Amino acid sequence: MFHNTKCECGHQNHAGTVLCESCGKPLDAELAGDNAPLEMRYDGAARRSQKANPGLIDRVWNFFSSVKIAVILIVITLLGAMLGTIYPQEGTFINFNDPEYYEDTYGLPGKIYYMLGLSHTYESWWFIGLLVMIGTSLVICSLDRVLPLYKALNKQQIRKHLQFITRQKVVYTGRIDDADTEEWTVRLGEQLRKRNYKVYRDGDALLAEKNRFSRWGPYINHIGLILFLLAVLARSIPGWHMDTYAVVPEGDTVRLADTNYYLKNVEFSVDYYSNEELPEELRDTVRAKKYQTKAELYECVDNCAGTQGEPVLEKVTEHDIIVNSPLSYKGLKAYQFDYDPTPKLKAVNPMLVDKKTGEAYGPFHLSITEPEMLYELGPYRLELITRFMDFTINEQGKPATKSREPNAPAFLFLVKGPELDPAGETFIYFPKQVDKQRFSQDILNRELAERIEFRVDSMEEVEISGATTYLNIRIDKAMPYIWVGAAISMIGLVMGFYWNHRRIWLRIDNGILSLGAHTNKNWYGMRNDVAAVLRRMGIELDPKSLDNGGNKT
Amino acid sequence: MKGKMRKPVQIVILIGVLLLGGYAIGKTLFVSGGAPKIGDKPPAFELAGLNGDVHKLEDYKGKPMIINFWGTFCPPCVKEMPEFQNQYDKWHSKGLEILAINLSEDDITVRSFLRDFDLDYTILRDHEKTVEKRYGLRSYPTTFFVAADGTIQDIFVGGMTEQDIDTRVEKLLQG
Amino acid sequence: MNWLDISSSAFIAAFFLYCFAFLFYVIAVAGRKWSNRKPEEHVRKWSRVGFVFSTIGLAAHLVFFFTRWAGAGHIPTSNMYEFMTFLGMSIMIAFTIIYLIYRSPLLGMFALPLTIVIVAYAAVFPQKVQPLVPALQSNWLKVHVTTAALGEAFFAVGFAAGLMYLLRVIDFKGTDKAARRAQRWIEFTLYVIIVIVGFIGAVFLFRGMDYQASFTQTTISYDKTGAESITEDKVEYTLPPIVKPYNSETTSIEPFLGMKSPLFEAPSWMNGANAGRKLNTVIWSVIAGTLLYGLLRLVFRKPLGAVIHPTLEGIDPEDLDEISYRSIAIGFPVFTLGALIFAMIWAEQAWGRFWGWDPKEVWALITWLYYSAYLHLRLSRGWQGHRSSWLAVIGFIVVMFTLIGVNLIIAGLHSYAGVDG
């Protein structure tokens, strides 16, 4: 369809050129015969992708260089993203490992949702695929348009073809009575300069232009977006990204998974809103105002595998972690995520009471997690046989533990002492009162229960650990690039949307002024500019009358 | 840009897209959750045994082995232990190694528990669930059968009968 | 008189000023053809009056905002009431900016009712100042919410102008397929707007009557080990219960028009927090909106689109199209900055992740993708006029869903911590 690429002005154009690159004359015969406003996109230059005989690479290239395809990709991504919001994503749960969750909670639709993989929409191959395609489209679309546009804008001819001028969307033609048309043009140029236009003159032809930089806005925006997407991708480089949780009871030191760091929860505190601070309907409800973990971070310097006793730790930093203020050390960050205020039993200090004599021995310190193997109390000797964290009686009728969590701790001792079997007698002890009754401690201990008991005299003899803090441990080395990408993208958007590129061409032929103007956005402002300048030159007109139709973008 | 530069530029960009995009999509397909699967190499570890001696996975390179995760709180794990001992007696001379990793329980619990058993195979002690997480464990017991070439031949979740173990070990030693 | 009292008085003042301003804009536009006056002069005079009133209204609204800020001790954008009033205020700011560029009184005729509806909708929610949970105590949050709302306000003005364009250009006398389809859809759009008005009307009507009903809902859930746990929740209704919560017993009910017990029970899959009540509210909104719509149809005896269409005659549709587009183009960077970039900065600070695919975040992204598709279609594919205006109208639905729908529907079916409707 584009046969004749040589313009009558003598310029040899590339295949696919709509308007002559030099004088702006419509090249296509059909287009030249028409009188409708011209399509000014990329100034009528050939887009890179338009080529006579496309091969495979050209075809792929053309596919991604099409704005239509880009919009279709955007719309599909948008619809896909919607699907992901129907039910909560797997990522919402700290540790998702229950394939039946969706069916149990939402029934059949939930089951289908899970089976289709929509429960992890945003990590699915097709969603990532769409993002990759959008990224590709961003690169190719931009590259394909910015170069011809740059060339077209970089070497503009001042005197344009008459048809080019009169077929712009903002047009004025009229008689100039001044004899010296060149002088008139100079004066008009002055007026345009006052409006911040750059003015180029060639006899009685003139080109005025302003804010060309705004044309680069979209491309800068796209560069920012590409950088952003690459930065997101970079997070999968090993060591660049980590995201785990640490559960640290008050007073404990916990190793941060996959790192050489240990974090100590020195103190955890919660402030609640007082009744005066709460509106009436919320009075007497518990609302956290602030919660804080006083944390210390340690680095392991020796025996980190824990194979030779305890690892050797060295304190590196400390910080009071609150919700908007994480602990930060060499790219590792610990964020306050949640907390569990339920106290946990840490240790008890019971007395051993000889029921016959009424004499009490002790108290002795019995830690739940790190008990001593042997306690000597007056004439008595307690040898720890074993300890159950979560006591139960198993199928064989033997005492066992149900889990690793200290839900129902129990201690089995071998007791030796006066009037007892010299080989010792077994005695089981539940530090928690509820467990004592639930598992009938006295029945389990049979006769020995008549002889001795462990008694905790006051609440002071019970050591309870404070709240447990839940911290989110993160490393994200891609963050700076993500922010840079976002910033560049934002700069591009502002350039592109809050300024617009305006151009005015005019020529005077035999006392007839032909003026055409073009902008990429905001025709309203363009017409006002032209009308204001013409008014200064003594031509009064309504800006609206400059409209040549089709002024919509 | 000159016309003749165009083709190379296109090719470079498309190859770049193919590599980066392929990597991004491939990641979603092949790495899920990080748990080792059949055919993978078992994740490395370095753990203390009962006497405090250090065992590294690479020390057992070239040997067929069973990596079993167990805890005293898990009845099927406990039930398996004598069966593993029988298998160990039967196949150790053929090179079979059994590494039974305890699920981060404390000293007293493990020691007093093992007093009731007479086990010869290697018991290892995990620390703060590090290795357990690395192996992506979801329930206990879980047993990995690793062939002599260092790849996981089978993964069994749940308690096994002696028969279950036997057939798998035979297969392991054939390969 | 303390800050909060001044604040609520200013709010009421702003509301009525907006109503008057709307009236004057209508006079400005519709009164052009009145006898014995020059149309241009009439328009200039009355639109000036309208603009003065809307500007004073905005000033009162700003007084409301800042006195509430002073009274509450934190920026009033933390619950639904505060956010929606802020959105209304942002729309007025956006309107004022666009008005100063284009000086079209017609825009006032559409942007003001939009603001009025949004502000009235805000008043449906509890108005008490609430304390902030720790995650919300951040400066980035203030910047994020305000900027995002401003961006959305420009989209709202784009929607108003797009709707005007459609009402102006759709051929209401046409009988061919395309014309009929356009008529139907524009009528449907107007109907939806009236349903929202109906919702607000119903809530205030029954609030005025002090209506109350309550239910005890029993929820049975199973945990991982299969153990059953039963919870009982009290559900309060302020609208007569057509639908009661799933698996619930009536504790108290005031009879309404002879209705002494709920007619239906909500289906079991609606198991989220207050799902039954929300469903009941939706049913009431549709009933009230349909009644209102029917009444208007009876009064005018023709489709509402055809009623509004003649008042817009003589207005250049291309101006409307451009206002709609420009408004969106101005709003897009603001929205990008507020709803995405500032949101990411805040999320990074508070939770250590700049993006977490939370439904609200996803919908902000969907809105952004939607408007970027709009801009590409318009700038590169030449979608203008009809198509572009429809996109602007649909776009605003997406915006409203992001703001309200996500909290009401998604949070209603699941149990996200959301703002209760």
Write up what this structure looks like.
The complex is a heterotrimer of chains A (553), B (175) and C (421). By secondary structure, chain A is of the alpha+beta class. Chain A folds into four domains: 47-153, no CATH class; 160-211 and 500-546, TATA-Binding Protein; 241-343 and 468-476, no CATH class; 345-456, no CATH class. Chain A is built from 13 helices and 25 strands. In chain A, the strands form seven sheets. Chain A has a five-stranded antiparallel sheet with strand order 1-25-24-3-2. In chain A, strands 4-23-10-9 form a four-stranded antiparallel sheet, with no helix packed on it. Chain B folds into two domains: 1-32; 46-174, Glutaredoxin. In chain B, 41% of the residues lie in helices and 19% in strands. In chain B, strands 2-1-5-4-3-6-7 form a seven-stranded mixed sheet, covered by helices on one side. In chain B, α2 (75-91) packs across α5 (162-174). The termini of chain B are far apart. Mean pLDDT of chain C is 83; it is low at 412-421. Chain C is mostly helical. Chain C has a three-stranded antiparallel sheet with strand order 2-1-4, with no helix packed on it. In chain C, strands 3-5 form a two-stranded parallel sheet. Chain C folds into two domains: 3-127 and 136-172 and 303-413, no CATH class; 173-302, no CATH class. Chain C has eleven helices and five strands. The chains are: A alpha+beta (553), B alpha/beta (175), C mainly alpha (421). Chains in contact: A-B, A-C. The interface between A and C is large, with 70 and 65 residues.
The overall number of domains of chain A is: 4
Beta-strand content estimate of chain A: 25-35%
How many extended strands of chain C? 5
Mean pLDDT metric of chain A: 84
What does the largest sheet of chain C look like?
3 strands, antiparallel
- The proportion of residues forming helix of chain C, as a percent range, comes to 55-70%
Strand element count of chain A: 25
Number of domains in the coordinates of chain C? 2
Low-confidence residue ranges of chain C:
412-421
Organism (chain B): Paenibacillus sambharensis
Protein name (chain B): Thiol-disulfide oxidoreductase
InterPro entries (chain B): AhpC/TSA, Thioredoxin-like_sf, Thioredoxin_CS, Thioredoxin_domain, Thioredoxin_ResA/DsbE_sf
Keywords (chain B): Disulfide bond
